[in-house]
Amino acid sequence: MQKKDFTSEQFFVVFVIKPEDYACGGSVPSTIQDKGNHTWNLQRTKHLQVTIVPSIPESVYVQAMLFSFLSFLSFYVGALMVACMHCVRARRKTSAERYSTDDGSGTMAASRPITAGTPEGSSYGAIDESSSSGGRQMSSPEHGLRRGSDTDSSVEEESDFDTMPEIESDKNVIRTKMFLYLSDLSRKDRRIVSKKYKIYFWNIITIAVFYALPVVQLVITYQTVVNVTGNQDICYYNFLCAHPLGVLSAFNNVLSNMGHVLLGFLFLLIVLHRDILHRRTTEAKETCTLDYGIPKHFGLFYAMGIALMMEGVLSACYHVCPNYSNFQFDTSFMYMIAGLCMLKLYQARHPDINASAYSAYASFAVVICLAVLGVVFGKNNMWFWAIFSVIHVFASLALSTQIYYMGRFKIDFGIFRRAAMVLYTDCIQQCSRPMYMDRMVLLVAGNLVNWSFAIFGLVYRPRDFASYLLGIFICNLLLYLAFYIIMKLRSSEKLLPIPLFCIVATAIVWGAALYFFFQNLSSWEETPAESREKNRPCALLGFFDDHDIWHFLSAAALFFSFLVLLTLDDDLDTVRRDQIPVF
């Protein structure tokens, strides 16, 4: 209760006794029911004790807000320091290269990046550059200018490549090779591919606006009803640590989501900085940009930054009034974050054949629809869980087939029949070794994980379907990331200090965050009275509870996770694309 709501400094406390103990987790005893299943009205006595304590002073609010801002401001300071160190190191490197390439006559010899880990003259693992299906040739200055020019008057479209029959046959030849290299899957014009991935950024902004506005309107309505009626059973707060401010009943739960917004914006700034540097080197027509390293496409990174910011906004909206009917708002963009991260990992080695923004967001829409149906119909509904498990298993098989054959396996109603024929021919009739052993190991492990989730859901039917679905996404993402790092190390690639630090920080912060996540302080799956039994006092600064700490740590963990994806392949910037393996 706030003093501003009681100008006369008087108020009444009214207790409403429930007619049954069901609301408090009990049940009606069978001994007091007659044969007609009617309950007799028995006189009961309840002993109540009311304790009124003053709320926290304004200084605690100020201290908590300063702590929140300064905590995440330190990330900005750290990012600025790392950027300055890189700038100084780049200038020193440039000066050293100029000094080392000076031939003494006042002219500089042109320097090229040297392929890491390949002895001079060795052709092991390389693709014949004269072959039509092999990697790109070493670009001459004229070739680099023609291909890299952004001012070229004739700008090709992606359809100009994909609709040509000879290009289609070329794709089939390339993608069925025993060993694929990045040059095989980065053959399209970089401008066209960059435009394709920028659609991810613009589409997620549109989705965010149309998704967030109804959510904000709904939670404002919930909060207004709570303030007008005084009904404390509508929203499932942690009442032992719910500090109001203005119209918000639990301002601390809203404030703690600020980290997602601030760190998402910081990630956008870091990506923008890298994007600007890449554009400068591209405009300079440097061979290193055109033929070396992982192709730089930043559209998915921008989309990930927006998704992180929107996760903070929607989580704050959910915590305005946590309840059964708006829980999906807190998890919708978590599905999108996990999906975008998997797409970004796949894009690194498959830039030409990654999913389009339209098909990816359509898949996310289907997932969110399933999440809503699961929340509404999933409680102890055997038919829903059976249908969902079947969809889950068949979707895993279809996606596995598409990944194994590098997008050259036609997806239609006959995909499972063709896949069964391939399995029968290769595994049973001929008993031959899989052509792509590494991909096969990943897909077998992934299918086992997904089938285990499907069986678990069908047998136990967990009540929190949204968290169950999110667990599926997170486990698949972790499996793919572990596979990517293992294959990277197997290919004699390196982990530079920055991505290695981000990996370690991600693991530590995620571990601490999950500890606080599983400290259940309330539960809309139970009655309001049962939920209050789980309430706990504040754990940080006398203002934030365990769930608020989860918000702080999960924001930092997601930020470090994004940095892992952003910097993981920085060691390949000086390696030719026809010597970077695809896995």
SS-derived structural category: mainly alpha
Strand segment count: 0
What oligomeric state is this? single chain
Give the C-alpha Rg.
29 Å
Question: In sequence order, what are the helices and strands, one letter per element?
Answer: HHHHHHHHHHHHHHHHHH
How are the SSEs ordered, and which strands pair?
Layout lengths: L57 H43 L40 H8 L9 H5 L2 H11 L14 H40 L21 H5 L2 H26 L3 H5 L7 H22 L11 H18 L7 H21 L4 H23 L10 H15 L7 H24 L4 H26 L6 H21 L10 H5 L13 H22 L16
Describe the structure in your own words.
This protein has 583 residues and is an all-alpha fold. 30% of the residues are buried. It has a domain at 58-79 and 180-368 and 490-583. Residues 103-169 have low confidence and may be disordered. Helices cover 58% and strands 0% of the residues.
